């Protein structure tokens, strides 16, 4: 019986290996994660108020982010302790950016890429669409157009 299961496993692996090359969806979806202060995000968003790497503001923002990751309790506290780096003791908080991560998402054939903001509180994101032949609404069976 063990010889049969070994043979069936090998056969299954061979079938899966050969069929992977014939998969039409293979390689049509991919994405890269970027931090909100990374160079690709700065280039695409063209935002000048993001802190420069190596600056006091950059490290202050990183420490604030680490506190949030370490625990939501620390983020809720109003900690007024200054963060000190070499020459300074000023800390800046950038609340306007929110707590988002950005990703380059590649979709379709031919591949099109989009920079999307990922909200850590949700498992959904929307891709922008500027085509004129797209669906603009869906009529539900007994209700209004959504």
Automatic annotation (TrEMBL):
GO molecular-function terms, A-Z: aspartic-type endopeptidase activity
GO biological process, one term: proteolysis
Listed SUPFAM superfamilies: Acid proteases
Domain Peptidase A1: 101-146
Similarity section: Belongs to the peptidase A1 family.
Name of the protein described by the UniProt record: Peptidase A1 domain-containing protein
Organism field: Gossypium raimondii (Peruvian cotton)
């Amino acid at each position: 019986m063990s010889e049969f299961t070994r043979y069936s496993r090998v056969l299954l692996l061979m079938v899966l290996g050969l069929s992977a090359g014939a998969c039409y969806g293979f390689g049509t979806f991919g994405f890269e994660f970027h931090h909100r202060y990374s160079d690709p995000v700065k280039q695409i968003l063209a935002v000048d108020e993001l802190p420069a790497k190596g600056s006091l503001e950059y490290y202050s923002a990183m420490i604030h982010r680490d506190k949030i990751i370490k625990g939501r309790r620390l983020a809720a506290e109003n900690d007024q302790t200054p963060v000190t780096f070499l020459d300074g003791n000023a800390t800046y908080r950038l609340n306007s950016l929110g707590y988002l991560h950005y990703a380059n998402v590649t979709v379709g054939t031919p591949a099109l890429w989009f920079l999307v903001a990922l909200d850590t509180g949700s498992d959904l994101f929307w891709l922008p669409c500027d085509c004129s032949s797209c669906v603009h609404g869906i009529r539900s069976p007994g209700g209004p157009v959504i």
